[in-house]
Structures are given as C-alpha cells and as structure tokens.
Amino acid sequence: MAEAAGTTTVKKTALYDLHVQHGGKLVEFAGYWMPVQYRGIIDEHRQVRRSVGVFDVSHMGEFEVRGQGALDFLQRVTINDVSKLAIYQAQYSAICYPDGGIVDDVIVYRWPDHYMLVVNASNIEKDFNWLQQHAAADVALIDKSNDYSLLAVQGRNAQATLQKIASRNLAEIKYYWFASGEIAGVPAFISRTGYTGEDGFEVGCPPPHAEKVWNAIFTAGKEFGIEPIGLGARDTLRLEMKYCLYGNDIDQTTNPLEAGLGWITKLDKGDFISRNVMIKMKAGGIPRKLVGFEIDGKNIARHGYPILKDGAAVGHVTSGTFSPSLEKSIGLGYVASAHSAIGTELSIDIRGRAAKAKIVKTPFYQRPTT
User: Given its phi and psi angles, is residue 343 left (phi above 0), alpha (psi -120 to 50 degrees) or beta?
Assistant: First the structure.
C-alpha cells in the first residue's frame, strides 16, 4: 500500500511486538519487518539442531484453489503430480514459465474440499498474477495470505513441545502430511514440514491468536530450552541441507532439472507448462548443474562469485556460508556439467583471489539417527 510516490509501507506480522520483546534484530524482508537474529545466528542454528526453536514465517503466502477444475489447473501449472496427493497430504513442487525458468517453488496442500499453495513471501503478487492468467472459469483462486500467521517449530524436541498443547496426536502426522486441529485451543492447521532438515511442524493460525499460540509454544518448550530463531539461522540451516532458496539458487533464469529438482519434475504425468522444454533438455543433456562445495579455510563464497576450473570460469556461486554444524565453509553454485562430479577440485574467485574448493556430496549435513 503506497504512502507516497516511491515509498511503500513495510508490514508487520502479528508477532512483531514479541520479536521486539525478545531482542530480535529486525530487517526489511519481502515487504515485512522480520527478525534476522536474536541471540546470534550460530547459537540459534545450533539450538535448532540440538533441541528446538521457533520461527515466525507469517510472511509466506497462502492461496486457496477451489472449483471443479482445481486439480486440472494445478496439474497444468505445477511440475509435480498433484493427482497423487491424498487428502491431508502435502507436496513440494514448482511453478515454471514456458521456457522452464522457475516462477517459484511451492508446497501444495490437499484439503478435503480444496487445495492450498504456500508460496514464497517475495513472490506473492507475481505468483498470484501468473496463476490467475492460467486459471479457467471453473477455478477460483483466492489470496488468503493475510488470513494466516505461520509458525515453524523445528528440532528433535519439536514434537514433544507441541504435543503438550495440541488437540491431535502428532505422531500420526507423517512427513509432508498435515491435519486440522487446535494448538493451545486455537483452530490451526499443523503440517509436518519445514526448511531446516530437522523434524518439526509448521502451524497456521488466525493472526489475532498468533501471540497466544507463540506464548503457549514457549511455555511448553521451556524444559527443552526453546528459543526464537531468526531468518539468518533459517538460511544456514537450509543451506546445510541443500534446500534451494528462491532468488539465490533458483529463479526465472534456472530450471528444475539443472537445479537438482528432477525428482519433483514428473514428465510422465501429462502436459504442463514447460514440459516439452524439459523433455528436450533431459534428452539432450543438462548443460549445467547446481552442486555443493566446500572451501578451504575461513573464506566465504557469496552469491555471484565466479567458480573457476584451472583459472577459467565454469560457473557461479548462488549461496555460501560458514556451516555451524560442520564448522567449515560451504556453498552452492551452478557449474558446467563436465565439471560437476563429486570430488572435482575447483576454485572460487573471492574479490580477485582464488580460494580452493571441492565439490562434495549433498546434503552437507546428515541428521544423527539418535
């Protein structure tokens, strides 16, 4: 909503005041004031790996898809096979342009009488406009983004924390399934999903009740040392798992096959936007691939840095950080397929200086089984 020419109001989630109370360092992100950190990114990261933490992800977008043509529409605009979803099951997918470039990566939820898409915060308007352009008369697309606050409770103690205040038996919700119920007496949907590589849940509830839910979660998790977690640790956690971040690792210039998302690209499900392009690419060979690499020493690879092989550019970095779990520098980047094998030695051009790097197996982090 414009205030004046050239300025835009930055929104606050329903939990804004709590972030301030917890000492959150707030930054503008995707049109919202969001906490980038509280106690510190590395400490918050390790808290999630070790026990349990809570993220405010209310800035994410939610679209309802209703009508007789809802399934056919979603089959056409997403690359995964929506027909395989059972009621109360969720699915990771992507929306693509005709040339294969990625509009956004999304999660599709199948409710008893409709579908829901959860989309990235920075892409809400773009996604909604794109989907509307392709929706037939028998499809109703409704932007419900302002109707949900979304909290992610992540870590090995997430279930034990949330179960204390949940009306449902959370053990019955399998990975990438969800349920409707109550959290602290508040109507909510509870999905076993997340962006950290740990076990956990995402809880969607009406914004007027978000503070009540947040406070109840913190009371329930007190015995586990529960903490609020900011966007900074969310980024390092997802990078350790090689989870793609839209705007860094995937965007309109990349396609799912080169991004390592062939596992969600169902070329045999029938026609969908970009299918023919991807069939041709798969047949002809994928020219570049998104790989994971480690760097010697304390150097950090940043988005856009050139990746070199024997001094010649063969790709570019998309994400990089110091891994708090592995205590080494890691990153993702696109390289020519001829140089994408695990073990390949490369270098990263860090402001004119070549830092040694090696392609490694991903995910970088493997969650302990005990």
Answer: left
Burial class (CB in 10 A: 0-12, 13-18, 19+), 150: buried
265-316 per-position pLDDT tens digit: 999 999 999 999 999 999 999 999 999 999 988 899 999 999 999 999 999 9
What superfamily does domain 8-58+148-239 belong to in CATH? Probable tRNA modification gtpase trme; domain 1 (3.30.1360.120)
Please state the rounded mean pLDDT for residues 89-101: 98
CATH number of 61-146: 3.30.70.1400
- Can you identify the CATH homologous superfamily of domain 287-364? Aminomethyltransferase beta-barrel domains (2.40.30.110)
Contacts for 262-265: CB closer than 8 Å, 24+ residues apart = 264/79, 264/80, 264/92, 264/93, 264/94, 265/79, 265/80, 265/94
Q: How high is the pLDDT of residue 2?
A: 31
